[in-house]
TrEMBL record, chain A:
Family per similarity comment: Belongs to the protein prenyltransferase subunit alpha family.
A single Gene Ontology CC term: protein farnesyltransferase complex
Enzyme class: transferase
Molecular function as annotated in GO: CAAX-protein geranylgeranyltransferase activity; protein farnesyltransferase activity
Record organism: Penicillium bovifimosum
EC number from the UniProt entry: 2.5.1.58, 2.5.1.59
Keywords: Magnesium, Prenyltransferase, Repeat, Transferase
One of the Pfam families matching this protein, by short name: PPTA
Protein's name in the database: Protein farnesyltransferase/geranylgeranyltransferase type-1 subunit alpha
Source superkingdom: Eukaryota
Cofactor(s) this protein cannot do without: Mg(2+)
PROSITE patterns: PFTA
Automatic annotation (TrEMBL), chain B:
Gene3D superfamilies: 1.50.10.20
Annotated ranges, domain Prenyltransferase alpha-alpha toroid: 18-321
Family, as annotated: Belongs to the protein prenyltransferase subunit beta family.
GO CC field: Rab-protein geranylgeranyltransferase complex
PANTHER family: GERANYLGERANYL TRANSFERASE TYPE BETA SUBUNIT, GERANYLGERANYL TRANSFERASE TYPE-2 SUBUNIT BETA
Family matches, as InterPro entries: PGGT1B-like, Prenyltrans, Ptb1, Terpenoid_cyclase/PrenylTrfase
Obligatory cofactor(s): Zn(2+)
EC number of the protein: 2.5.1.60
Annotated GO MF terms: metal ion binding; Rab geranylgeranyltransferase activity
Keywords, comma-separated and alphabetical: Metal-binding, Prenyltransferase, Repeat, Transferase, Zinc
Protein name: Geranylgeranyl transferase type-2 subunit beta
Keyword Metal-binding: yes
Length: 333, 354
């Protein structure tokens, strides 16, 4: 924070700051009155004044920056800032550059990401995705490759600019999975790129048909038109990931989603999953579970019970869950 | 009320003792630390902080520790003319603080103060919330337009407590939740976003209030949730992430709502959570060895309460409030769970407008 104060700055002489009324003057001391440092208190008192007057000016814009730099979680200031930017027809690319720095400084803040979404939603300013956008997102992922806000924003970006088939999207996902094959966020993004709903006339969903109460559970995530070649390639991709880290849940879960999208059954992976259970040792609990589901579906109860029993041994923390699976198999007609 | 610190959680095995009196003192003293820098940095969480502290005190069996009159004064001082509540006096109204305000007033049995001294009574609060619903069923946090399943859950939570659920379109909210469901059987913050245990709680809690838990694939979701328990005994919020004490609540309550809490190892979970407490100065941290805060204190205690930990008051997994209080508040409504029937209302009914 600099030396200047708003009360002594001639640029602000015409503004009467609005002090915070936090109820401290009432007879009872409020339970949670707040001790503010003077700089913040002063800046926000001027902020209240210009917001009350709905002032759209350069100085107000600067003031929002000052307040954000002291407290980016101040949720109201962001709304006001966005309004000013549009009212003054500011260069939004400059705003993005500034925002990039703020984002890298406050990794956990989420107001920043909604602000970014508000800016990029403006079709006149951004008819297509800004050139540096994905580069910046990868900078964010270099700090935290599972940052939930950034991934959620990226998902919005894909849908807004219809980027499902953009080579950059898949390239970045592959880069991140190469760095960390256990990055479940990247797996989720891959699924949405390949199999997520693309109809922008109806609301978005985590799977096709997910929001349709009429559809049977088995129809959720199931595509009507299937590119079998792409499906095969995705299954191969998942298998390679599993071979690198058999106990990693994400590619197993992904493969289930892929098979469901294509309307294909789990049994086509019976041989693959079997490789992780050979010779008595269990190299992947997910493989055992996969096999158990396949044999249970075929009605081979005894084998299914044996396999779930193995899971009770290797995964004792969830033994009640596996016990439940065994009971369900035994109870099935 | 301060949010963070000052103590640290022990990093050595803590045994199985819960340091109740230390935690009570910790929460009580939060309000006396106004000279600390941290205090104003977390100003945007102030009203939430009161809800966390108050509910934690109830869970600990010390419900009358905070002065009731001052609590009411503070809550009402956060209300805007729109009927909604801000994080602190002078702050703009937002869904999250409005929900905390309602939860606090219900907990201390002071909802009638809204009519007496509030700005427009509970109907106005309900309208503020209802106006934040979008055409697709989702809810915004404020007029700025950000959507999050937390806001949807909060809306249903507060409106049902106020018996004003009829002000919003519950079926379309339910449809939105359905669209947040992912291929792994769990739910995210918005449609298409990665599954996250905190968001699972909000989605399942909302479905519970809407009486639509019949739409949940309980076995599949239960499997995903129980998979959140890792070797240390604690829960993570997403695959391959670190354990955090607050997930004992987000994961545990979700499992409880779908009647699958016994699928995890409760003993190991409790042991992990107890390691996150500061045995000397009180409070809980996210992980052993880290700084304590009131958020993790509340959700750790709530998690332990779900596990029926000795001496803790029973907490309602849907509302994250003492069960005795939600039972009193919702008595006489069509909510089946009030009378002990677990969370499966097969008829999908919701509260009619009053």
């Amino acid at each position: 924070m600099g030396e200047t104060t708003y009360s002594t700055d001639p640029e602000w002489a015409d503004v009467t700051p609005i002090e915070l009324d936090d109820g401290s003057n009432s007879s009872v001391m409020p339970l949670a009155s707040i001790a503010y440092p003077p700089e913040y208190l002063e800046a926000t008192s001027y902020l209240r004044a210009v917001m009350a007057a709905n002032e759209m000016s350069e100085r107000a814009l600067k003031l929002t920056e000052a307040v954000i730099s002291m407290n980016p979680a101040h949720y109201t200031v962001w709304i006001y800032r966005a309004k000013i930017l549009f009212a003054l027809n500011k260069d939004l690319n400059e705003e993005l550059d500034w925002l990039n720095d703020v984002s890298l400084k406050y990794l956990k803040n989420y107001q920043i990401w909604h602000h970014r979404q508000v800016l990029l939603s403006s079709k006149p300013h951004f008819p297509t995705i800004p050139a540096k956008e994905t580069t910046f997102l990868m900078e964010m992922f270099a700090q935290d490759s599972k940052n939930y806000h950034v991934w959620t924003y990226r998902h919005w970006l894909v849908r807004h600019f219809k980027l499902w088939d953009s080579p950059q999207e898949l390239q970045d996902v592959e880069y991140l999975l190469k760095a960390d094959i256990r990055n479940n966020s990247a797996w989720n993004h891959r699924y949405m790129l390949r199999f997520g709903p693309r109809d922008t006339d109806s609301p978005d969903a985590g799977m096709v048909n997910a929001g349709d109460i009429e559809k049977m559970p088995s129809e959720k995530g199931r595509l009507t038109v299937v590119d079998e070649e792409m499906v095969d390639a995705e299954l191969k991709f998942a298998q390679e990931a599993i071979l690198r880290a058999p106990e990693n849940m994400s590619p197993w879960s992904y493969a289930k989603g892929v098979l469901r999208a294509a309307g294909r059954g789990l049994e086509e992976w019976e041989g693959f999953a079997g490789k992780f259970v050979e010779g008595g040792g269990v190299k992947s609990s997910h493989a055992v579970e996969w096999l158990a589901c396949v044999v249970a579906e075929r009605g081979e109860k005894e084998e299914a019970v044996r396999l779930f029993g193995m899971l009770e041994e290797v995964d004792p923390i969830r033994k009640n869950y596996w016990g439940y699976r065994i009971k369900s198999v035994e109870a099935a007609a | 009320m301060a949010i963070l610190g000052p103590g640290r959680a022990t990093s050595s095995p803590a045994g199985d003792e819960l340091h109740t009196s230390k935690h009570v003192a910790y929460i009580k003293n939060l309000d006396t630390r106004r000279d600390e820098l941290e205090y104003w940095l977390t100003e945007h969480l102030r009203l939430n902080g009161v809800y966390w502290g108050l509910t934690a005190l109830h869970t600990l069996g010390h419900p009358n520790t905070l002065p009731r009159d001052q609590t009411i004064d503070f809550v009402l001082s956060c209300q805007n003319d729109s009927g909604g509540f801000g994080a602190a006096p002078g702050h703009d109204a937002h869904m999250l603080y409005t929900v905390s305000a309602v939860q606090i007033l219900v907990t201390i049995d002071a909802v009638d103060e809204l009519e007496k001294r509030g700005r427009g009574g509970k109907q106005k609060v309900g309208s503020f919330i209802a106006n934040l619903q979008n055409a697709d069923g989702s809810f915004m946090g404020d007029q700025w337009g950000e959507t999050d399943t937390r806001f949807l859950y909060g809306a249903l939570n507060a409106l049902s407590l106020l018996r004003l659920l009829g002000l919003v379109d519950v079926p379309s909210a339910v449809a939105h939740i359905q669209r947040c469901k992912n291929l792994d059987g769990a739910y995210g913050i918005r449609p298409g976003a990665e599954s996250h245990a905190g968001q699972v709680f909000t989605c399942i809690g909302a479905l519970a209030i809407a009486g639509r838990l019949d739409l949940v694939d309980k076995d599949r979701l239960g499997a995903w949730l129980s998979e959140r328990q890792i070797e240390s005994g604690g829960f993570n919020g997403r695959p391959e992430k670190l354990a955090d004490a607050c997930y004992s609540w987000w994961v545990g309550s979700s499992l409880a709502m779908i009647d699958r809490l016994h699928w995890i190892d409760g003993k190991k979970l409790a042991a992990f959570v107890l390691q996150c407490q500061d045995p000397d100065a009180g409070g809980f941290a996210d992980r052993p060895g880290n700084m304590v805060d009131v958020y993790h204190t509340h959700f750790s205690l709530a998690g332990l309460s779900l596990l029926k930990f000795n001496g803790l008051e029973e907490i309602d997994p849907v509302y994250c409030m003492p069960k005795a209080i939600t039972a009193r508040c919702l008595a006489g409504t069509s909510r089946l769970w009030v009378d002990g029937n677990p969370y499966g209302n097969p008829y999908g009914e919701y509260l009619p407008p009053e």
